[in-house]
Amino acid sequence: MVKLMKNVSQKAGFAPGSIIHVGEQKVEEVKISIIDYDADKFEEKESVNIEESFAFKDTPTITWINISGIHQTEIIEKIGKHFQLHPLLMEDILNTGHRPKMEDFGEYIFVVLKMLYQENEDGEITSEQVSLFFGQNYVISFQESEKDIFDILRDRMRHGKGRIRKMGADYLAYAIIDAVVDNYFKILEDIGEQIENTEEILLDRPSPEILQTIHSMKNDMLFLRKAIWPFREVISSLERGESDLIKETTIIYLHDVYEHTIQVIDTIEMFRDIISGMLDTYLSSISNKMNEVMKVLTIFASIFIPLTFMAGVYGMNFEFMPELHWRWSYPILWIAMLSVGIFLLVFFKRKKWL
């Protein structure tokens, strides 16, 4: 349950709006990048200081300021003062345990979402909180680490592909959200392949290792559901277009993201049902295997019960047992015991118990 709950207790006792980082520090140094563009111009800067970004607030071009690393609270505080952000908003940026949400502050819109990764070594799914707010001509995003899934988006902006360079800040915010949702599909495709492979192994040779894999996938589904389920409320709120910052031309794209989010949620629910069914299949397979073993043991015990009875009768040490003095009593007893055993085997076979 470590992935499902952040350590928020470290904020206990502090006043609302306190600038305190809650979560794991994932980078040593905060890095700030700036992309400024319009239909005819494109400018990109890497590893700049926070003061350099202030000049882009009121420019006529569209500016994307991305901050990788949020553990240095003084940087967040400087951005908040310059862009006149609400103290509770800055608190939400630093608290990495927030569920996805959207808040409209009039002059800007604040969005929290979860960016997911799947580690190559063991396939473990990890999450990173991405907070962004956008105004009339700027988008500022906050990430916990340097790695992200926005390289394709940046490439489109560099080469002027698509309509992103011709649209406003609301479309850039949509493009960032869309990239996050598209990555959900990639993770679900990998999980789907893992489920198919596990099902094949489960039917052929169920083992405790498979049970551990099933429980791991079940926990992943709970983790994904917690990260993505509230996200549809965020997209729905943006899609309603109640803010003047979101143009009508962007609403149709937000509706497309909303449909993709619903599709992701439906896939997660389907995978949860499949994994629950796999757990039932595992338990049934183990139970059937045990029943087969018990059936074989019961058959052998049933065969040896009359043989044990016969051996017990003639193994008694009474003096007056006439059969003990017969010349052919020993081979006759063996023939009788073998006959009983063969008869029982044939009887079980006709009953289809073997």
Protein architecture, described:
The protein is an alpha+beta fold and 354 residues long. It has two domains: 21-284, Beta Polymerase, domain 2 (2-Layer Sandwich); 292-350, Methane Monooxygenase Hydroxylase, Chain G, domain 1. Helices cover 52% and strands 14% of the residues. It is built from nine helices and seven strands, in the order E-E-H-E-H-H-E-E-E-E-H-H-H-H-H-H. The chain has a seven-stranded mixed beta sheet, sandwiched between helices. A hairpin with a 3-residue loop joins strand 6 (125-134) and strand 7. Helix 5 runs parallel beside helix 8 (248-313). The longest helix has 66 residues, at 248-313.
From the 3D structure, determine the CATH topology of the largest domain. Answer: Beta Polymerase, domain 2
What spatial order of strands do you see in the largest sheet?
2-1-3-7-6-5-4
Give the total of beta strands. 7
Low-confidence stretches: none
Per DSSP, the total helix count is 9
Quick one: CATH superfamily of the largest domain?
A: CorA soluble domain-like
Which CATH architecture of the largest domain?
Answer: 2-Layer Sandwich
CATH level 1 name of the largest domain:
Alpha Beta
Quick one: overall form?
rod-shaped
Q: How much of the residues is beta strand, in percent?
A: 5-15%
Helix-strand pattern: EEHEHHEEEEHHHHHH
Estimated structural class = alpha+beta
Average pLDDT, all residues: 84
How many domains? The number is 2
Describe the sheet with the most strands. 7 strands, mixed
Helix fraction bin: 40-55%
Instruction: Quote the distance from N terminus to C terminus.
Output: 46 Å
C-alpha-based Rg, rounded: 34 Å
